[in-house]
Amino acid sequence: MPHPLHDHRYQQIATLLAQLRKERGWLQQEVAERLGRNQTFVSKYESGARRIDLIELLDILRALEVDPHEFVDQIQSQLATALPR
């Protein structure tokens, strides 16, 4: 069984978070400032080097001004259309 960090679903979440940030025209540093964290924190979760827990996800979504329900719906939709691994 692969390590949970390498589960493709985490990468889909990280990719969507990066996409949402870029759609807003924000740098990682700007999101980090909104979170009260350093830029490395944002870089690590966007690259998949670090998982985020539920509380962190909610904080990130708030910083990105994204509705958590819409985010989860989008992830579920992506996973439903992805090929099983």
UniProtKB/TrEMBL annotation:
Domain of life: Bacteria
Pfam families hit by this protein: HTH_3
Record SUPFAM superfamilies: lambda repressor-like DNA-binding domains
HTH cro/C1-type domain: residues covered: 17-71
Molecular-function GO terms, alphabetical: DNA binding
Protein name: Helix-turn-helix domain-containing protein
Organism name: Variovorax terrae
